[in-house]
Amino acid sequence: MTNLIFDFDGTLHNTIKIYAPAFRKAYLYLVEQKLASSRQWTEEEIRQWIGYSSKDMWNKFMPGLSEQQKEKCSQIIGCEMLTAFDAGQAQLFAGVPLMLADLKDQGYRLIFLSNCKIAYMQACQKTFSLPTYFADFYCTEQFGFAPKVEIYKDIADKYGDKNIVIGDRYADMEVAIINQLPAIGCRYGYGNDQELTCATITIDTPKQIIIAIKQIS
Fold first, then answer.
1. Residue 204 CB neighbours (<10 A)
2. What is the number of helices (H) and of strands (E) in the chain?
3. Is a pLDDT exceeding 90 seen at residue 18?
4. Closest of 208, 190, 200 to residue 11, by C-alpha
5. What is the pLDDT of residues 160-180, one digit of tens each?
6. How far, in Å, are 33, 37, 41, 95, 106 from residue 102 at the CA level?
7. Which of 8, 22, 174, 212 has CB 3.0 to 4.6 Å from 77, enough for a Cys bridge?
8. Distance of CA 168 to the CA centre of its chain
9. Do residues 114 and 138 touch, judged by C-beta distance below 8 A?
10. Whose CA is closest to 99, among 211, 215, 2?
11. Strand ranges of the sheet holding 109-114, from the earlier edge strand across to the other edge
12. Distance in angstroms (rounded) separating the CA atoms of residues 217 and 106
């Protein structure tokens, strides 16, 4: 059986819809605490941070913040996004549920691998009925915020190495590169073209994932 290792944010989930307001609220907190200068953030600027673990995001975005303030901002974003889930504001990309159902019906094993926190993963599972499609779930907080390439070792130990990686950021492609796996790069997500140069194939919509899998299997 071939395993499909799916990233979630930017690959299946149109995350910017709920991440952008959450990011702006966290930044406003920093402004109010006189830890940052007031400014407006566009979605284009914000989207670059989607796909990082919360730890890596704040270390890259504002490395000079204290660890306490980084954690506070991470909590603000996390709480705001969970509230957005409860309010029904989170959205998958068009066609994703049908695509996932089709792949499962074709006999693929779907595995969730995300740089997210446990509470966020659980909200995704509940909101989008993900256990209907996915056989297993892995997120970075379960592994002490380890990178995906390290978490993959646990997946391979459990399910073998007949895997295809599907994602929109270099963290996904790195799993494929280091483990010599085929990879599908999702250009519609939040990474840039340079991050996906090592993908076996790139696609422009989630609906193309099925075709891409058949081409590289």
1. 9
2. 9, 6
3. yes
4. 190
5. 999 999 999 999 999 999 999
6. 49, 48, 38, 11, 6
7. 22
8. 8
9. yes
10. 211
11. 134-139, 109-114, 3-6, 163-167, 183-186, 201-203
12. 13
Among 105, 120, 111, which Cα is nearest to 53's? Answer: 120
The tokens for 152 are 């993959």
pLDDT at 28: 98
SS (H, E, C) 18-29: HHHHHHHHHHHH
What are the tens digits of pLDDT across the range 28-40? 999 999 999 999 9
> What is the mean predicted confidence (pLDDT) over 112-124?
97
Residue 111 and residue 138 in contact, taking contact as beta carbons nearer than 8 Å = yes
* pLDDT at site 150: 97
User: How many Å apart are CA 64 and CA 60, to the nearest integer?
Assistant: 9
pLDDT over 90 at 85, yes or no: yes
Q: How far is CA 73 from the centre of its chain?
A: 19
Q: Measured between alpha carbons, how far is 169 from 176 in angstroms, rounded to an integer?
A: 12
Instruction: Supply 30's token pair.
Output: 């920093």
Token pair recorded at residue 127: 């909101």
* Residues with Cβ within 8 Å of residue 126, at least 6 apart in sequence: 85
Looking up tokens 């891409």 gives 212
